[in-house]
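One record is kept unedited as follows:
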Amino acid sequence: MTKRSMHRNSLRGVLSALLVLTGATALPVHAGVLSAAAAAQSVTAVPQADVATPTDRLIIKYRSGAAGAASTASTTERSVLHRSAQDVALRAGVQMQLLRVGAFDTHVMKFDRRLPQADVAQIARDIAASDPNVEYAEPDRILHALFTPNDTQYGQQWQYFEATAGLNLPAAWDKSTGTGVVVSVIDTGYRPHADLAANILPGYDFIADTATANDGGGRDSDPKDPGDWITAGECGAGVAAESSSWHGTHVAGTIAAVTNNGSGVAGVAFNAKVVPARVLGKCGGYTSDIAAAIIWASGGTVSGVPANANPARVINMSLGGPGACDTTSQNAITSARSRGTVVVVAAGNSNANASGYSPASCSGVITVAATNRSGGRAYYSNFGALVDVAAPGGDVRTSSANGILSTLNNGATTPGADSFAYYQGTSMATPHVVGVVALMLSKNPSLTPDQVETLLKSSSRAFPATCSQCGAGLVDANAAVDAAGGGVTPPTTTPEVESNNTRATAQAVTKGTTIAGTAGSSSDTDYFSVTVASGTSLTATLTPNSSSDYDLYVYNSSGTQVGLSEKGTGQVDAVTVTNSGASATYYVRVLYYSGGTGATNGKYTLGVN
């Protein structure tokens, strides 16, 4: 197999925002939008979103055949059976009595007062550990109606709640709303929209070129969007005139629009905060400015720019251009990841392989494809092995209502009044994923960028319609929040076992495993076999040591290559394949290309998820 060239251009030139605008008229601002202060106050009125309600009940399931377990047992038998559990409760400072025998002959026990759910869970564990007759014990949790925002246009945000291709957000909101998480939107800047401004933190304008900036100056501390309209030919011969896009405002609204304020739209992570970094102006934006914004947004140092007082845990880049990932962008992304920042990028809107676009093809990012309202790949969305997941991006060809509704401005050139509008694009899919990542990080702030990516993929759901090469699946907010909080078993680490140099001698592993491998020599190759269920995806992630270049290939059960990644020295290779047939064995291959070998210098890790 021929190794692809890994040389990158250090400067990419001009990037354009990845969106497709609708031709529909923007929706008018709803009368009665709250002031920023009132909106901020209203957002806090979801007291049960992140805190489990205390309970005074516990469920015990005794093993079949235990005396007193069945619903027909006598009072005396039950009294004897419950003695061990009641002793545990007494040691915890509460009295506990049988309330009733429930479904499946479970014993519903009642305490003399309500306790925090975590305390009840501990009592349940102690009960199970103290009595071999207990099959399981668990809190009898108090649940609530799923949170539904009262925003007047929430019903038009189909991508949040529709069963077919929505994000399953209402269930997630009962567990996390993004509290405590800072997101940076690296884009055209923002407008202080009444349905967004309360969630905006101080940002920065990184556009150094005054003509591109279109605001009368270069870099400064004001990231507000003055408009990016162009006249015919202004950005090159044959380039048509365009109105201002207000793109960054639309993206930021999807992530963190003020929610439950009786007006406008809802945001995915509506208690998160947004730090805007302005990098796109007239005709796009320069790679050098974008790289500086990535470093600054994540808490790094940029010469001549004041430090960011609110470093972002997750960055949204709904931007890109043709060409594979350049060195400047890759270095900036690697720098951000070293500070614990998750970087999420749009796959692109060219109906082409994302490997030919940047930053979609950069290592260490979460690359997002777009789906339509049916859950299939949107006609414009890029695709390929480098795509990690997909999310709703909309398709307005038949109706603007099938697009993504968010905050906007109605000015054709310079800023006008607040408005709302439907857009479509991978630019719109990306902030949905960023919002879900914010929900995950709010639930579990200790997650690393790699852990976020792994859990986001493993918790995604199968596509309801055809979405070939769209990554591991359609993002599921509720499952992702559960995974972040421990609902999914973390990957286990296992050593590589030789000899595994052929498919016939491949080392068998399971999904959810991380392999600690070694390139023993310059002729070494390692095979790993994994069973992939029907309708699910396999994602293999190869992380070499910093001085080595090893390549990654995936084969189907017949030995046909179905995926590959051949990135350069020290770069992470990743391949995702979807099994659309019956359950089958796939083979993941690691091949030495250059660099270190042996037990010390030949180390690599391979994640199989």
Notes: The chain has a mean pLDDT of 87. The chain has 14 helices and 28 strands.
